[in-house]
Amino acid sequence: MDFYFLLFLAGLIGGLISGLLGVGGGIVYILILPIAFHFIGIPYEEIAQFTIANSLFGTFFAGLFATYSHIKHGEFYPKQILIISISSIIAGLLSLHFIVNTPFYSKELFNVIVIFLLAAMLLSTLFNAKKQLDFKEKNERTKRLLSFTGASAGLTASLTGLGGGIIIIPFLNQGFKMGVKKAKAISLGVITITSLSMVIFNLFQVPMQTIEAPHTGYILFQVTGPLIIGTLLTARWGVRLSRKMKASSVSYLFSIFIVLVIIKKVIELL
Known about the structure:
Radius of gyration: 17 Å
Transmembrane segments: 6-35, 47-68, 80-100, 109-127, 147-173, 185-206, 218-238, 250-267
Number of helices: 10
Keywords: Cell membrane, Membrane, Transmembrane, Transmembrane helix
Subcellular location: Cell membrane; Membrane
Low-confidence stretches: none
Oligomer: single chain
Family: Belongs to the 4-toluene sulfonate uptake permease (TSUP) (TC 2.A.102) family.
Membrane topology: Multi-pass membrane protein
């Protein structure tokens, strides 16, 4: 009972963060899922693969619920979402097939990549947080650069299970001079589409090790169920809360969660 309550709690926090920050709930899910898989006996050699697959499953619902709230308030940008999503899906699926779902991709490598990417995003976010106070949005962007953003996000999502929002939001905000709240809405839409494609892919994969726990491909519904229920309850509240916060405050809050994940992953490596 305590085990499933912990997953439910992670879903509550992940859903709130998804709606508030636009990065998906993966930043919480990748903290709790390795513990869950160790508890139910998933082989150590494939904990990274199961963590990524099930984090993306939870992230899909977190993004879906938050995006629905944005659509209700007219905060939906289908053109940008579609352009970014296409390249994100292609990059993500290729990465899953040729890198992640192979014996090469160990839990240690997974943690190193997560730490490296989050450290880079942390520095970038902190550097630009103060600029949000005087931020002026511009509309200078091209399909080619949006596609590059999508490819980077898809690669990040497939390698880490974070959903890609940690790439999309800084790219759109800092590289394209797009307001952080608009970037957040676009990020959630892309996360929803991209993570769904990767979940479907992982449902039809065959794990490299024998798994005794009930599973469909790399997805364990008994683990993701409590996550999704918790996410359903809080994702829309996160969106509502974000409308009341300053963009700079959202950036600083984003930085705090990045630091927490980095600390946890460094501990795991040591």
